[in-house]
Model the fold of this input.
Amino acid sequence: DAGVIQSPRHEVTEMGQEVTLRCKPISGHDYLFWYRQTMMRGLELLIYFNNNVPIDDSGMPEDRFSAKMPNASFSTLKIQPSEPRDSAVYFCASSRTSRYNEQFFGPGTRLTVL
Amino acid sequence: QQQVKQSPQSLIVQKGGISIINCAYENTAFDYFPWYQQFPGKGPALLIAIRPDVSEKKEGRFTISFNKSAKQFSLHIMDSQPGDSATYFCAASMLVGGNQFYFGTGTSLTVIP
Done:
């Protein structure tokens, strides 16, 4: 299995631009998570899906952030408009429903907003 | 509110020494406690995990000690090696909460040769 795939790996954009991050979870996994990692705040859970349905989006910082999961093999995290404080590494992770689960993380997307 | 508190924030250990990272939680509904290891430029990866029905779990040089009454758990890395230099995250989850993990803030470990 290729693992969780994220694209792009690096994104540099200017303030005010729209940014779309993409994630392909591991086949057969029914949970998908979006995290943001910064030095100041560590790993923050932004939103997670179960069977393509958003379960908890309380970690989404503000309305500029939105996430979708149109099917079991694809999810996007969109920031519109982007701001310099959104600069971070964004991780996607997936897991299978089980009593004691393991989340598998992708390689992350490093976002820099100038 | 941080559900899982982790310390120290950073740790420097000599090669061959013991690295100890501590975590504490409040929610007694947590029933699964994994540790994740993250190397620079990579995503976190599961290192070792424990359930609260045991007090210790060992895998090679890595050991989790779990104290249910104190609501604390810790990661011990024996004979620490430079290749162990990474960021370590503790986490907790509960069955009724689905598959959501509550992560600690991370510990940056540096093992000096």
